[in-house]
tRNA(Ile)-lysidine synthetase (Lentinula raphanica), 570 residues
Amino acid sequence: MTLLARGISRDDFIRAFRFCKLPIPWPNTIAVGNSGGPDSTGLLFLIHRYLSENSHVPNLPRRVVSLHVFHGLQDASEEMAKRCTEYASSLGVEHHVLKIPWSKDGFPELPTEGPVEHNARIARYRVLFDGMTKANASVLALGHHADDQVETSLMRIMKGSTEDGAAGMKHCRRWGMNFGNLGAGSPMDYEGMRRWIIRPLLTFPKDRLLATCEENKLPFVQDVTNFQPELTLRNALRQWLANDGKQSKSDEHLLNVSILREKLTRLGIGIDPSGGKSQIRSAVNALALQADDIDHKVDFILSRNALRSPPSTYLITHRSLATIEGPKVQRSIVLRILRYASFHPWGSLSAQVNRRSHSLTQIVDKLWSGNPFEAQIQPFCAGGGVSWTPVAIFGDKFRFVDKHSNGNVNINHTESFGWLASRQNPPSHVAMTERGFVNPLRVDITPRIVEKLDAGEIAPLEILYDNRFLVTLDLTTISSDIVKRIRDGTSQIWLLPWTRWFWPKIVLKSQGEDDVVLHSAARSPEHLLLFNHLDLSEIKNWQEIYWRPYEHEIVSPWIKVEFSRPLTIL
């Protein structure tokens, strides 16, 4: 096969890999998702070559492992797995074949019809996560390239995304709390916040990956289902782009070209299908660069303008808001605060009001409307599980404002005003019980504690509470009396909500006795405040932000409660 494109050189890949820089030092091991196709085959080769030739360079991964997901959805699955194993072995790279356990361990049944690709994708990421655990890797590299980026952008636009979504995939992202999650309580819930996904090939088109494989004589297989436009929207878009805008009748049920063109025109973001794939690729890349620039602006604004407020909340004055100009930056500020304060899983669209234009416009209009008390704006929630409350601010303190019967509010001349974002109030426990719902804020953690004790494990027990707080229990120092009582069934340990911020308090419940509060303190840990320009003293100041409740804090040395959602870009 003769290709006009040139392969990816060493220098090309070094520059591309730098785009994937983590906000923390590189771990020792990096995993590569290896399907056996030209993209992942080329990526495994490039990463292995880069790390092997730069073993003397500090702060780089020292080891690469290959992870292949065996879906069992095609007759060719066995052959693809075999090819991947052979190629990884030829490089001397540790390789794992990860079979999806359909119908077991919470996985769905083997999909044969309906949303096959959707179910397979969720299952694939779940087993990749488990494979990373097995390989002791906290970073997963994926082979998405510039043409995939174009398809992703158009898919998101077809599904109603705005300019934010049209920017496509990030070079580096935190795994998050539910990316590939098959159910609440899985190990992914918080561990995903310590893991990363990188995509080093996003700046390279497909033909350069093919050229890389040809120049280096890399064996790969082609998944024939990727070229069947009637199967998925991505395939239909791929075929449409390859045919210069001519559509196949077989995929008309998936891709309505007239609707796509209408949405592109309405967005006005410079994507013109008539210009061909190269023009679209350049437009999407420009959107991605613009999104990165806005993200860094938002980092700076949020770190410089936040005031002291309780863990899990964000407080900002109206004066600070008034200095933030431009609808794109304002919208991004709101999205970041939503993701921070929401109780929905970090990284999910639910935590960002599914990026609905109507909801975001409502929030932006109210926050930038001027004095909320003069405008008589009441506390409100526009989605995402976040409440927005106007407050009076004096120095580093704030208070809620009562309205008098005549409609006036009590604010003196020494106070300014601003907005506090916090978790939305849930339905009452009584109301949830009457409707037959389980209250997610009242959690009996006794079984998990007993299981850990019985296993004799010395590692702390970690429990994610309300997708917001990480509760860490050092069971090696727990009271022997408490252990005896929970083992014989006379007592239980519960996580219950307290304060108006719905922090978790750890409570010992015993038959015929009053509840005993074991721990009620919470804080924001240093590693979530990784703004590049903050020095250590400023980070300590953030950690000291605390709301003093009416009752005294109780601290147990074997319990730690930390707010677990980062405000930073990653």
Q: What stands out?
A: Confidence is low (pLDDT under 50) at residues 543-550. The chain is about 35% helix and 15% strand.
